[in-house]
Amino acid sequence: MAECSIRRNHRARVLLFCAILGIAASLATAEKIRRESAAEKIAFRRLTTAILKMDGKQVKFWDVYQAEKRGHLVLVQLGRRYLLLDTKEKEVLEIAPGAIEEKPNGNDVVWARSPESETKIESEEWSLRSIGPAIAVKVRLSAEGRVLELQLPRLLNSGWFY
After folding, report:
1. Which domain holds residue 7?
2. Mean pLDDT for the chain overall
3. Is residue 3 a part of any domain in this protein?
4. Residue 162 within a domain
5. What is the mean pLDDT of residues 66-81?
6. Does a structural domain hold residue 89?
7. Total domain count for the chain?
8. What's the confidence (pLDDT) of residue 84?
9. Residue at 69 is within a domain
10. Which residues contact 98 (CB under 8 A, 6 or more apart)?
């Protein structure tokens, strides 16, 4: 009888230990994912030969940046507003201006990616096409009813379209 009681206690301890180990592993994994996503910084380089139109009209104050390592990410600055176009996933994010840091040389910016700094904007009617030495991107921002058109120079090292 005593031997049976000892075995039950031993099994209960082993099960408790396994449960604690599983919880600790999942917490460690969640913390690692949170740190990686919080620490992710994406560098963008200004495209001086890009062309931008909103609803078929020229925009007064704007800049266009392309991610250095992820060519499918395009950052559009419209005045104080930043829109991130992901041409691969075909989605648009609005980025909080405080999350964008300008580098000293003036041509590069860095985005410290975090879930708090980005808001998804509904978009539709994506059009990506080659127009000789450039790529034309056209997207309708559904909630605003506006059409954003970009012409991006085809960079020598960009294999993000074809």
Report:
1. 1-39
2. 81
3. yes
4. no
5. 88
6. yes
7. 2
8. 93
9. yes
10. 117
Report the pLDDT averaged over residues 117-138.
89
| pLDDT higher than threshold 60 for residue 134 | yes
pLDDT at 40: 85
What value, to the nearest 5°, has the Cα angle with vertex 47 and ends 120 and 37? 40
Contacts of 64 (CB under 8 A, 6+ apart): 46, 47, 50, 52, 74, 75, 76, 77, 150, 152
Q: What is the mean pLDDT of residues 78-90?
A: 91
Are 93 and 81 a contacting pair, CB within 8 Å?
no
8 Å CB contact between 85 and 74: yes
Distances (CA, A) of 49 to 13, 44, 46, 87: 67, 15, 9, 19
Does residue 145 sit in the same domain as residue 72?
A: yes
Dihedral angle sign, alpha carbons of residues 53, 110, 68, 92: negative
* CA–CA distance, 110 with 100 (Å, rounded to integer): 6
pLDDT class of 62 with cuts at 50, 70, 90: very high
Token pair for 125 = 């009617």
